[in-house]
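Limitations
The structure tokens in this dataset are predictions for the assembled complex, not deposited experimental models. Users should treat interface geometry with appropriate caution, especially where small molecules or nucleic acid strands are included. An illustrative entry is reproduced here so readers can see what is and is not provided.
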Amino acid sequence: MKRALILFATLFLLNLSSAFAETTLEKIGRGGTLTIGTRTGSPPFAYVDKNNRWVGFSIDLVEQFVAPAVSKKIGKTIKVAKKESAPPTRIPLLTSNAVDLIAETMTDTKERRESVDFSLTFFYTGAQFLVKKGSPITGIDSVAGKRVAAQQGATNARILRERVPTVKLVEFPDQPAAFQALAQGRVEAYTNDGIQLAGLKAKAPKPDDWAIVGAFYSNEPYGMAMRKNEPDFHNLVNQGLADAIESGKYFELYDKYFGSKGELPYPMTAEMKRLLQASAAEFRKAAGAQPAGK
Amino acid sequence: MDFGVIERNWSFLLGQGLVGIGGFAGGTLRLAVPALLLGFILGLFIGLARLARSRWVRVPATIYVELFRGVPLVMVIFWFWFILPFALDVALPEYGIALAAFVVFEAAYLAEIVRAGIQSVPSGQVEAALSAGLGQVQTMRYVVLPQALRNMIPALVTQFIVLFKDTSLASIIGYVDLTKAAQIVNNREIRPFELYLFIAVVYWLCAYGMSRYAGYLERRLATA
Amino acid sequence: MTYHFDWSVLWRGQAGAWLLQGLLTTLAISALAWLLALALGILAGALRTVRFTPARILAAAYVEFFRNVPLLVWMFFFYFAVPTLLPQPLQEWLYEHGAEFSAATAALGVYHGARFSEMIRAGIQSIPKTQLEAALSTGLSAAQAYRLVILPIALRLIIPPLTNETLNLFKNSSVALTIGVAELTFQTRQIETYTAKAIEALTAGTLIYLILCLAIARTMARVERRFAIPGMVGSGATEP
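Predicted assembly:
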């Protein structure tokens, strides 16, 4: 009992000490570092390559477009620090100030917007299934009663459970664990966003052993998540991304990763290009209508 | 079974994982050594506090020790991971969080070793020192602690081995120690047997080496 | 950034049920692993004291190897690597029936079995050799002598370090969360993930561990008092 009382007392004191509020931009300016939460096993968005370097499309988006925008606004060069995040940990990392921006493969959803803000959508994909070649599973209609892997806390797990109540969902803390389960036969399919499954398949030791099946059973627009009530930082991130889309630099980066000579050939659809340009334009209009930040 | 994966990645596993040289924030030794030194200093104070005359000093120290010995290290790591950046309002690197958690946790165990070491010094020594005119603090500094420290050394080395193994839990918050380095490579290459066997052997070599050294120290100190 | 306390998340919603499930899982893993560890510990500890050298070396190899490698590595090894070595039908059965739980129990039991064996060995070695000689001279075989005379005494002698190690085993069950076992610490994280109330969740989990550790320590103290051998204080059995 005494231990519990001392514990509570300490916690209340700690809470009092953090009553001062600092904006994200001030925090970044103070430390000179923009800390992002990103993945280590989601090629080609954020992963560790064969030379054991931490690289990826999402990481480059931050380093090449967002960080310079922040640096320009603050007036000094900002470094980008990376911390590992995964679906169950990313929002806590953000709300506890451990990271300032989640730049990986996080889907922008209405529910999540209650806890965090999202940047412009920087990628469009949808949920599918990864199976061993020759598997009888061909899409969401054939997974009833089967063991399917999903990431704990990801949108796919929840949606699949709602659409197919009899599915035996096995949740894993991150993508590599789920993929290993599939490789070892613990599960019969792995559900995630199509582009990530394509990345896994391409990087697998034997890509031809795997097949991505099923039509998109949900739409997954990727956004970068940040804390709520940070209009300056939010605008800067969107500015960086919008500049990249309008100047064409975004499409060059896209080509590097998803072009015919890239890590994972995945030609951009005309639809996606249109959506990207539309959201950039919409941001410009909205930003133009407001005074340029405090 | 393809041990080529070890061949291709051993410099990452040992360089980044064990020592801490590389592009990631990590290193088992880089965490274990400072944790032991800082933990010992903290443990020394708490161990002394456990033996203090005043209740205001003794009781908090006892609570500290009993608290951290009654919860799993994983729980303590999570406490620090969630609360520390929030309380200090700054984004801390995993290294800082892990180091803080390990120092605070190990200090509780080291405090017990310190206490046992001090209590193992025969009370005749203290009586003789006091009757020779030394004050309480002087007695502690010049008579009790030197002998106590010598008695503690084997237990300290044993605790270091425990700490060395415990650093593997830092991988849970993403610190790239030897275990996390193996996980990173395994996630890419999917060769769990080869990789985890390899790091088991590395851990074993280090820990076994240290325990042999502890035995050697014990034998050398026992002669006096 | 201020934190808004909301202790009601602990009883509103699913938090209470999750904590209970986690607690039961923790107790289940700990109990099963403890039995495994005791069995392995007695076997290895006893084998290290017999005259037959190959048995001694085998037991020593088991103890030295498993003791000096972190438990986390064993968890990963038993969960990811060992199933691949098993025959296919066994693998299938394992995946259908909670592979994580089995792997975690196995890792925890085997790791602590190595640690238990050192205490049991010390306990056996602190019994005067005359006991064994007397037992053998009444016609008991070596195995019977160990089973009926030596081990019962040894086990009662080492109850204090055994208590300590049992508490360690119980606390180490938390490492099982890394391979997906929904034990108590995992559920603490789960509550935190769904409600974002880290302090409340962590406090609940911490209090439960503290209470249980206290309960285990008290129980073992009662066991020690009941089984104490008059005239033989629990000495000579030092912690590894």
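Some entries come with short summary sentences. For this one: Residues 82 and 88 of chain B are 11 Å apart (CA to CA).
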